[in-house]
Design goal:
7 strands; 7-stranded antiparallel sheet; alpha+beta; about 140 residues
Length: about 140
């Protein structure tokens, strides 16, 4: 059994379409643009990037995927299954087992929360995210 609370106690990082957190009260149209990106076809493209990121991470580490909707765990699901779960935009928790990190995907946001404190893992996630046009930052 995987202890989700253990991971939630770790530092949180964000994998996002934006390179850093937008400050409260910033100029610009953050909420209008966020709404735009959260609608098709943009959100579909973002979740494709998320799926590719997870598939690439699974090359380096065993993963366990928790489907929130049916409270089930899958160990190293087939690549097509993992991709489909992400593209269906269901809430998922993905644990990198050896790296001791957890990624949380809500299914309706333009970011993934990453819980972990291992520098090598965060660098790997950052490299893969960058290759997919995503960014990682600490809130």
């Amino acid at each position: 059994m995987i202890d989700i609370e253990y991971f939630l106690s770790k530092p949180c990082w964000i994998i996002d379409i934006l390179p850093k957190q937008v400050p409260v009260g910033a100029a610009g149209q953050y909420f209008a643009i966020e709404k735009h990106f959260l609608s098709p076809p943009h959100i579909d493209a973002i979740y494709r990037k998320f799926a590719i990121l997870l598939l690439k991470l699974n090359c380096y580490d065993d993963i366990a995927v928790y489907q929130v909707s049916d409270e089930s765990w899958q160990e190293n699901p087939a690549p097509s299954v993992l991709e489909q779960l992400v593209l269906e935009r269901k809430p998922l928790l993905v644990v990198l087992k050896q790296s001791q990190a957890m990624l949380s995907i809500t299914g309706d946001d333009h970011y993934i929360a990453v819980y972990g404190d291992d520098e090598n893992t965060l660098q790997l996630i950052g490299s893969i995210a960058c290759a997919e046009g995503l960014h990682i930052w600490k809130p």
